[in-house]
Design goal:
Blueprint: H1 6-34, H2 44-65, H3 71-93, H4 99-121
Length: 131
């Protein structure tokens, strides 16, 4: 049985990452200027990570559709949220991280905790099927 809160969690995570990735990928210049963040010397330094965030959002949508069957994607989501929040919050603790990225790190930290709870609540994953 799949706990009732897991599907809505991953729908929310999918929407969050897809919207965030699209907005940052398309409008990073005015956003970064508004927060006083120095623009990179090439747009792809922001657009590629933004595209990866969209890809993860699609993955979270796949988890929402079939949480037990896509439990492996939850583990990738845990690692992604850990990587982002860990790196950003470590730099924030050192006092050299723009606040814009710190807000997203706290959101990802909350998702990280929820993803770990979902991963554990779903129990062992399904055995791999032969190709």
């Amino acid at each position: 049985m799949i706990p009732a809160w897991i599907r809505p969690l991953f729908v929310l995570a999918a929407l969050y990452d897809i919207v965030l990735g699209v907005v940052l990928g398309l409008a990073f210049k005015p956003i970064m200027n508004r927060f006083g963040i120095v623009l990179p010397n090439h747009d792809a330094y922001v657009q590629l990570p933004a595209a990866f965030v969209v890809v993860f959002g699609i993955g979270f949508g796949l988890v929402a559709a079939a949480p037990k069957a896509r439990r492996d994607l939850i583990l990738l989501g845990i690692l992604m949220k850990l990587a982002y929040s860990g790196v950003v919050l470590a730099h924030a603790a050192a006092g050299n991280m723009p606040v814009l990225w710190v807000w997203f790190a706290y959101a990802d930290l909350a998702f990280l905790v929820a993803f770990v709870a979902a991963w554990r609540a779903l129990g062992p994953g399904e055995a791999p099927r032969p190709a």
